[in-house]
Design brief:
By secondary structure, the chain is α+β, with helices and mostly antiparallel strands. The protein is elongated. One of its GO terms (biological process) is endocytosis.
Length: 1074
């Protein structure tokens, strides 16, 4: 497919393409059919933990290093890999099915055979596509035709850039003039498009029709584009596809999904390295105690293999299976219905989040604007008093225009009329100063033409570039003044009495981010009056309106309530004033140099001493329980950053409304900077402020990160809340990456749109919210929720439990392996061993001895060592029998095992697996308590459940218990060495079961079942192991009391210590449970 290059695209003729273009498919998969196994195995064995066991298993193919049967090493390793492969395969298949659903969406395509259906994945560059209203645009296209009479359409782009404003798009003039859409195939025309790039706000291209007379050439800009992932908001559009697949603007703004590894996996990997270091040290010490005799290097390797249980392979199996259980619990939680776990490898990450980065539109808000407040200075109207406004508007159009003279009217009437006229003027201004267009659609009863002719209310919908505008016009309709018609030059309003008011639009000054205001000049056709109406942000309108003493105070009050405040004003113009203005305005627009500055200067000449009419307060409705959820996250020690593509004022209002920024919290709005010097000055000003929220735009953020990345991130991380507005998708991902690098803390990104995919994939945990605008974010996320409020329970309950359970499970599995390894490790004898060449006569076996049967050692061997069999076992061509081999492994530093391979495998599986794994059901507090006291989550951010301190404690416990069990068995056995195995192994099993009971904090019936099941499996298996355990001896009273004593000595002190700690230094959660 080569590099990105410009292209010439012929309309309706994909076969004329000059180069190969990528297929139009969405692919969120990490692997394909050929890379699945190689990449998966590489990702598994690049970590020390798995590589160690691979080398361990491979070493058993060498005869001199073999310690047991091959299955004792390969079966556990293959089991670990099988579980991982199955889990990853299931995740990949699910991801494939989700992608297939999106790629299989059907669209209409114009062809020489007429209109045909085509899948999204089958769309090619050059295809002429028909996209209906409310349908997702499947590929980047040039806009050719629309069904709208006004020759334009609106796009919803919040899935692309995060902006809630609808975008106006214009078709190519040449193709819009064609009689029918089918004529597009009859003309000879092409589009020249620039090379694919990441910029979603600009486009350069040309449209050429060769068969015209003369040939037609039109320039193309961003206004002529329909980018993929946007949604057509009005009419039906026809476009020609210019980019597909990986060349889409939306795809180029997203990063490839990375393989995420949980922090607990990395910590366990680090602990296994420490254990391996201990394993090497112990092995070298064992050989050193033999004075490095014989082939000592082989002995070191054999000791490494012998003590390999120190690094437990079952740890990985237990952790992976535990994660699957945690994922299943999340899915089945009835209090967060619809939650989906798409990455089952990192559920415990949810328990250690330090930074939460969230989108605004559709994530925190519903993107539904509601009019809340009208303030006239002397009186304010809320939602509960809108009927008064309605009555004032009604009276303004029902009473005669010439009322009683003021001198004859009572004082009360004068006041009432003054308020009534003020309300009427305010409502009229709000109904006129906007860019809203009413559109009429057929509703099954009335067709479109009839609805448009009679202004049918049931068929009318409003279209605008901003939902704020629509909410204002809908409010004026609710109080009696309805916008029923509009085109480029006129506007029609309907009064409560049904009268139609006609206004001519003389000039329109659209809203810009620089001016922060919009204006309109209209002429009332009934009276001929010319009026200039303007509305905008209070910061700019304060200097435009006439002096007053209430504007600043009331704007502050409404902003603190989380309302978006607009100041509405008007100015009456005479015909002469307007003609003078128009002449200067036209002259300014014809200027070649400094056109925008001259135009702005002419407009500003009108913006003086305007009459302040009212303030409006509009609220972007928050999703359910957003405020309490953010409060929970804040109390849990999680810092919340809002990253949005929306404008600064909107983002700031939402942050206040959602209580992301608290009422008494100072806000530092980072002013716009473009140079290094400006950024330096602004950062110094910001540094002098303490404990204040930061609001910064994407442009200023880019400058700061370019020159002062470290300083900016250091200051921003100290803020209780950060709002980044006008952010591109790439910037969102960059902020996540910088937080990870600078703080080393875990991040969680939450979003609902295609513009959030990069951020979600970059974060340690990505959460997608399934909203109205599609599933692109939720498909790319690790976890998918239906509402933002579910995030609280996902983190506080499931994240916390998953992390604590994973930490307990991993440390207990390490303890289980260290225990048996401590028993395996030979103790230093009271006398040094003799030379390997010296063989005492009392150790010569009799000819009557049956190989494989245990032989009683001399009694004095209990108290001191006499002979070293290690060299004999290594140099002899025949293998040592069980008696000599096990006996020498315990007393003479020989590298042979204490327990047979079956016992070791059984110990890690059926004998202890069920109770140990049941720790995944344990919990310290109920879920209701965890939600009520989010401060409990804060304790986890320090990583205390799994730390070097807790690891060392478990190591000491393991050494203590292993030593007690081994010495106890040595001191209490009688004449048969086989009894040592019986006593020590039984004590070991019972000790592990009791230790599980000691660790559990909340019992579950499956835990009790696991304990009894494991004990039953052990007792039942004794019947089938006569060569390993003396079945007759274990039924004696002697065996029972010896095992009881050893088990009590190994466990009772730990129970006492736990009681003392709970009594005198209880953990935080225990105070809540009581």
């Amino acid at each position: 497919m080569g590099d990105f290059r410009p292209r010439t695209v012929w309309l309706g003729h994909p076969e004329k393409r000059e180069q190969r273009y990528p297929r139009n498919v969405i692919n969120n998969q990490k692997y394909n059919l050929f890379t699945f196994l190689p990449v998966l195995l590489f990702n598994q064995f690049k970590y020390f933990f798995n590589l160690y066991f691979l080398l361990l298993a491979c070493s058993q193919f060498i005869d001199e290093l073999r310690l047991g049967e091959l299955y004792t090493y390969w079966v556990p390793l293959c089991l670990v890999l099988a579980i991982t492969i199955i889990r990853e395969a299931v995740d990949e298949i699910r991801c494939y099915l989700r992608d297939k659903e999106v790629n299989s969406q059907i669209y209409s395509k114009l062809s020489t055979r007429g209109t045909v259906k085509v899948k999204s994945s089958g769309i090619q560059v050059g295809d002429l596509l028909i996209v209906e209203k409310n349908q997702r645009v499947p590929a980047d296209m040039i806009f050719l035709r629309t069904s709208e009479r006004n020759g334009s359409c609106f796009l919803r782009t919040d899935q692309l850039d995060g902006e809630t404003d609808w975008k106006l798009r214009l078709p190519v003039a040449c193709t819009q003039r064609l009689p029918t859409a089918a004529d597009l195939l009859q003309i000879r025309s092409y589009v020249y498009a620039e090379e694919p790039n990441i910029d979603i706000h600009n486009f350069v291209g040309t449209f050429t029709r060769e068969d015209g007379d003369p040939p037609v050439n039109e320039s193309l800009s961003i206004e002529n584009t329909l980018w993929a992932s946007t949604v057509v908001a009005s009419g039906t559009v026809v476009g020609v596809v210019i980019y597909t697949g990986r060349e889409l603007r939306s795809v180029m703004n997203t990063s490839n999904p990375r393989h995420k590894v949980g922090l607990i996996d990395l910590e366990v990997n680090c602990l296994t390295k420490i254990l391996f270091g201990a394993l090497v040290v112990v092995s070298v010490v064992m050989v050193a105690l033999q004075h490095f005799a014989g082939r000592w290097y082989l002995q070191i390797i054999r000791f490494l293999l012998l003590f390999s249980n120190i690094v437990p392979i079952s740890l990985r199996v237990n952790l992976d299976m535990g994660k699957m259980v945690f994922s299943w619990m999340i899915k089945k939680d009835s209090k967060i219905p619809g939650t989906v776990v798409r990455a089952s490898t990192i559920p415990e990450q949810l328990g250690r989040i330090s930074y939460l980065l969230t989108d605004k539109t559709g994530t925190l808000t519903l993107n539904e604007m509601v009019f809340r407040r009208l303030h006239l200075g002397t009186v304010a109207y809320g939602m509960d008093s809108m009927d008064e406004v309605q009555s004032h508007v009604f009276s303004a159009y029902t009473q005669p225009s010439h009322d009683l003279p003021a001198s004859r009217a009572p004082a009360a009437t004068k006041v009432r009329k003054t308020i009534s006229s003020k309300v009427h003027e305010a409502v009229k201004a709000i109904a006129l100063v906007h860019n809203v267009t009413p559109v009429y659609e057929a509703n099954g009863v009335t067709d479109q033409a009839e609805a448009e002719q009679h202004y049918e209310d049931t068929c009318r919908v409003y279209q605008a570039s901003s939902p704020d505008e629509v909410s204002l016009v809908q409010w004026t309709e609710s109080v009696g003044l309805t916008l029923v018609g509009r085109d480029h030059s006129s506007m029609q309003l309907r009064t409560p009495t049904g009268q139609i008011l006609n206004f001519t639009i003389l000039q329109l000054f659209p809203f810009t981010y620089e001016s922060k205001r919009m204006g309109i000049i209209v002429r009332d056709e009934s009276t001929g009056e010319i009026t200039f109406y303007m509305k905008g942000a209070d910061v700019v309108m304060a200097g435009i309106v006439q002096y007053n003493d209430w504007l600043e105070e009331e704007c502050g009050n409404m902003a603190r309530e989380g309302l978006r405040v607009l100041v509405v004003s008007k100015k009456s113009l005479t015909e002469e004033q307007y003609q003078d203005f128009e002449a200067r305005y036209v002259q300014a627009k014809l200027s070649v140099h400094d056109r925008s500055l001259k135009v702005a200067t002419v407009i500003e000449s009108l913006e003086m001493e305007m009459e302040l009419l009212c303030l409006t307060g509009v609220e972007d409705q928050l999703q359910t329980d957003v405020r309490p959820t953010l409060e929970i996250l804040r109390n849990a020690g999680i810092k919340v950053w809002m990253l949005t593509g929306d404008k600064l004022e909107t983002a700031t209002c939402t942050a206040k409304n959602a209580h992301l920024i608290t009422r008494n919290q100072d806000i530092h709005i980072f002013r716009s900077v473009t140079t290094r010097g400006e950024a330096h000055l602004e950062l110094n000003a910001f540094r002098r402020k303490h404990d204040c929220a930061l609001v910064i735009s994407g442009d200023s953020l880019e400058v700061c990160l370019k020159y002062y990345e470290y300083e900016f991130m250091e200051l921003a991380c100290q803020c209780p809340a950060v709002v980044c507005c006008r952010c591109t998708p790439t910037q969102k991902a960059q902020i996540v990456r910088l937080l990870q690098e600078r703080t080393g803390k875990l991040t969680c990104a939450v979003g609902d749109g295609g513009n959030d995919v990069s951020m979600i994939q970059e974060a340690d945990c990505g959460v997608g919210v399934e909203g109205k605008e599609g599933k692109q974010a939720s498909l790319a996320a690790d976890f998918s929720v239906t509402q933002f409020k579910h995030l609280g329970r996902l983190l506080m309950v499931h994240g916390r439990n998953s992390y604590k359970r994973s930490a307990a499970l991993s440390q207990f599995v390490i303890h289980r392996s260290l225990c048996i390894s401590a028993m395996q490790t030979p103790q230093c004898p009271s006398e040094p061993p003799l030379s390997p060449t010296h063989t005492p006569t009392h150790h010569t076996q009799s000819s009557s001895h049956v190989p494989g049967q245990p032989q009683p050692p001399p009694q004095r061997a209990v108290t001191h060592c006499i002979v070293d069999f290690s060299s004999a076992c290594l140099t002899s061509d025949r293998s040592c029998d069980l008696s000599a081999a096990v006996f020498s492994s315990v007393f003479y530093f020989a590298s042979v095992p204490l327990f047979e391979g079956f016992l070791i495998i059984g110990y890690s599986t059926i004998y202890t697996m069920f109770p140990v794994f049941s720790l995944v059901l344990d919990k310290d507090v109920k879920s209701e308590v965890a939600m009520m006291y989010p401060e409990l989550y804060k304790d986890l951010l320090k990583g205390r459940p799994l730390s070097f301190k807790t690891f060392l404690i478990w190591v000491l416990i393991s050494i203590y218990q292993g030593t007690i069990i081994m010495y106890g068995a040595l001191l209490l056995f009688d004449s048969e060495f086989l009894h040592i195995v019986s006593i020590s192994f039984t004590s070991l099993i019972l000790t592990e079961l009791l230790m599980v009971a000691l660790t559990i904090q909340t019992w579950h019936w499956l835990m009790i079942l696991g304990e009894f099941l494991s004990l039953s499996c052990y007792i039942a298996s004794l019947v089938f192991l006569p060569n390993l355990i003396d079945i007759y001896f274990i039924t004696t009273v002697s065996f029972l009391w010896k095992v009881t004593v050893i088990t009590l000595v190994s466990c009772l002190p730990l129970y006492i210590l736990k009681y003392l700690r709970t009594r005198f230094s209880p953990p935080n959660y225990s105070k809540l449970t009581t």
